[in-house]
Design goal:
Elements (H helix, E strand, L loop, with lengths): L3 E6 L7 H14 L3 E5 L3 H5 L3 E4 L27 E4 L5 E4 L2 H11 L3 E6 L1 H11 L5 E5 L15 H22 L2 E6 L6 H10 L3 E3 L7 H13 L5 E6 L11 E4 L9 E3 L2 H13 L3 E5 L11 H19 L5 E6 L2 E6 H5 L25 H8 L7
Parallel strand pairs: 1-2, 1-6, 6-7, 7-14, 8-10, 8-13, 9-10
Antiparallel strand pairs: 2-3, 4-5, 11-12, 14-15
Helix pairs in contact: 1-9, 5-6, 6-11, 7-8
Bound molecules: 6-O-phosphono-beta-D-fructofuranose.
Length: 379
């Protein structure tokens, strides 16, 4: 029987985090379970920094609130934690046992890990150390393995769609090519779905290395039928057929972490288009507005269902799983399955080449639909 549970939110924030927290707390209270929240993700677990969560005080009025009331940390791998030793040198340490001890001392029966592939990798690593973990799939990128949709994704797509709508009117007025660079890391879900929703003409995604000649062809075809403007949506992880992804910054946070900040492909695509077509081209980088602010109604409901289901699993004593939504049903899958081949404990926490992420497959209906309605995918 679980009596005390704790939540942590880790990695980049996503709309719906607070709605999941709220749903876990409310479901816990319905079942007479106490709930706590570690502050700033795994960092809070390491420092044993937590707050009591209850619907009378902090865990209410949250449905519409973006961000996370318990904070988050990016790039914290407690299995390979960056420290500075007495000589001022960087030293990486496995501090996971400190976290396990904290959980024991606090009497936590189950840890809910709200996060993307990196967070779930650490969750699986903790489960191997005997911690009862339940993951909830968060990320605007929609790239967590074994689940059809992550919370936060729908909001990001809605924001990208609104941006495309707004770019349409200015593109048409100025006879320009408007490029929109969206997030998504190595998965093209946001770009593909917002391109369909916003009626874009071109969508470039990481899963299909693009041929600029095909993009130019599309723009010229449109010109021939009197359409003197084009909307191009580019995923930050898109790359040309014979080129590499565009890296904005390389970080040095230790092995197994996300040491690459993507960005810049939109500028490259806009410049190439201008040079090759003569159309004035402008790039807009949508950036962090995609993951800030209020969640859509869809994400609020999805998050609430994810949170309630997570607590139900805990009540049923089903641990070391990720809550999933597949083919219209909520369920769970083992964290072992979520990490896939990325099995070495602590070695690669996520968003790395070893990560098991869910990318757009070529037989996905979205790909077929995009092609059917004439969206150029750069191939
Ligand atoms: O994973 C979510 C995400 O927003 C990606 O789409 C983006 O590449 C990345 O996080 C940015 O992360 P950071 O917060 O480290 O800049």
């Amino acid at each position: 029987m679980v009596k005390r549970v704790a939540i942590l939110t880790n990695g980049g924030d996503a709309p719906g985090l607070n709605a999941v927290i709220r749903a876990i707390v409310k479901t816990a209270e319905t079942n007479g379970v106490e709930c706590y929240g570690f502050i700033e993700g795994y960092k809070g677990l390491l420092n044993n920094n937590y707050v009591k969560l209850d619907s009378k005080t902090n865990a209410s009025g949250l449905l519409h609130r973006g961000g996370t009331i318990i904070g988050t940390s990016n790039n914290t791998n407690v299995f390979n934690y960056k420290t500075i030793n007495e000589n001022g040198e960087v030293e990486y340490k496995d501090l996971s046992d400190v976290c396990v001890q904290n959980l024991k001392d606090d009497g936590i029966d189950c840890l809910f890990t709200l996060g993307g592939d990196g967070t779930q990798k650490s969750s699986r690593d903790f489960s191997l150390k005997g911690v009862n973990c339940i993951g909830v799939p968060k990320t605007i990128d929609n790239d967590v393995a074994d689940t059809d949709i992550t919370f936060g994704y729908n909001t990001a797509v809605s924001i990208a769609t609104e941006a495309i709508d707004r770019l349409h009117t200015t593109a048409e007025s100025h006879h320009r090519v408007m490029v929109l660079e969206v997030m998504g890391r190595y998965a093209g879900w946001i770009a593909l779905e917002s391109a369909i929703a916003g009626g874009a003409d071109v969508a470039l995604i990481p899963e299909i290395p693009y041929d600029m000649n095909k993009v130019v062809e599309k723009i010229n075809e449109r010109k021939q039928i009197g359409k003197n403007f084009t909307i191009v949506v580019v995923s930050e992880g898109a790359k040309p057929k014979d080129g590499e992804i565009t890296v904005k910054k390389k970080l040095d946070d230790g092995s197994g972490l996300d040491n690459i900040r993507l960005g810049g492909i939109g500028d490259k695509v806009a410049n190439d288009i201008e040079e090759l077509t003569g159309f004035t081209s402008r790039n807009t980088v949508l950036g962090y507005v995609q993951r800030g602010g209020t969640p859509t109604a869809f994400d609020r409901v999805l998050s609430t269902q994810y949170g309630a289901k997570a607590m139900e699993l805990a009540m049923d004593g089903i641990f070391n799983v990720l809550v999933t939504y597949k083919e219209g049903k909520f369920g769970s899958v083992s964290l072992e399955s979520v990490v896939g081949k990325n099995t070495v404990v602590g070695a690669a926490s996520g968003n790395t080449a070893e990560s098991n992420i869910r990318k757009v497959q070529m037989d996905d209906r979205l790909i077929k639909t995009a092609r059917d309605i004439g969206i150029c995918l750069g191939d």
